[in-house]
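Treating backbone geometry as a discrete language has practical consequences that deserve illustration. Part of our work consisted of pairing the sequence of a single chain with a tokenised description of its backbone. We regard such an encoding as a compact summary of how the chain folds. The amino acid sequence and the backbone structure tokens for this protein are reproduced below.
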Amino acid sequence: MFYSLFIFISIVIAHFTYKNPFFIDFERIIMLHHILFGIGSGALIVLLSFFLSYFFHWAQKLEKEFKDYLTPLPLASIFGMALASALGEEFLFRGAIQQASNIYIASFLFGLFHFPFKKEMVPWTVMAILMGFVLGWLFEYTGNLAAPILCHFTINFINILLLNLKSKKENIDPSG
């Protein structure tokens, strides 16, 4: 429901700015490489998050915070959360705000939306700003939201799924 509001707001912004919230004016076709680019970018970012969690204490603390809030969840809930956040946030931040302003403002606002509720979560905000630029670049490069939506979905789905699998394993085997 929350992310439906984001889509509604993006439609309102699009109406007043005369921009299509899914496409940039010059491109109206979703190509297979846009889809593969979005999923592949998301998978690479998930691998980067594994690397960060393995080597950096701040990333381990961040993972623990997410595990406390996002586990245990059934697969359908993980899928629904990942899809709703990817659609809602990408329509609003890339489809509406980025087109009405620019990639810098959209990325900064995207990061502020991910503002921490605990000091351990501050790196999440910084990473969200950086991700805003990645997602914004995908939007500019492809001319549509397919790649950023799929990238965002892939990151959220895989990361939340893996947190749940890891949490389940730790509950079965407390020594792991």
Observations:
- The mean pLDDT is 92.
- The radius of gyration is 17 Å.
- The chain is about 80% helix and 0% strand.
- Residues 15 and 135 are 22 Å apart (CA to CA).
